[in-house]
Amino acid sequence: MENLNIQEIWNQHGILLEKTRKLNESLLREVKLGQAKSSLKSLLFLPISTLLFYLIAASYGLYFTVVNWETWYFAFSGAVVTFFSLLFIASSIRQLKQILSIDYQAPVLKLQKDTSRIKVSVVYNLKIAAWILPFAPFIGLFLVKALFNFDLIQIINDGMIVSFAVVTIILEILSLFVLRALRPENISQKWLNWMLQGSGSQVDEALGFLTEIEEFEKEER
């Protein structure tokens, strides 16, 4: 009889421990998911502000292109601004969709995968910026004309044209270097995380919280 009582107490103790473990796991998951969700919500400002800004830029770029159609370099400058603005708009919409569509009830591994995709989208914005670099002189023409209604070409001489070409070549080389550095295998590099401070670092914060859940679940198995 005494052995039966000890066995029963031991079984009850085991059941209690299992309930406690599940409760701890549930509480930890709830807290860490809340923190991850908060981090990603704070990232929403980036795609929303980018979307609004480049909607305006694309609209004005298109208007600028039509109004200055007869002057090739202005038309081209406006087309460049419009094209890259559309790329930023598409990227921002994709980021918003990724952030808002995350299912926080999904398994941790899926959450980590979906969250990592958001970081890839943020890095894509840097790639767009790198693609813009060779066209910087034309964007300069666009800005001066748009802001001051002045044609820089009127004061450019042969020497300045050569300088213009040299700057374009240098920026093209710099663009290729940056694009090479932004390859997927470098997405976790410290220098890239530093560049994303305040405009993408929230993704790493969220991934950190998800990792804590994953490690706890492994320890409890």
From TrEMBL:
This protein's name: Uncharacterized protein
Q: Which UniProt keywords apply?
A: Membrane, Transmembrane, Transmembrane helix
Q: Which residues cross the membrane?
A: 43-66, 72-90, 128-148, 160-182
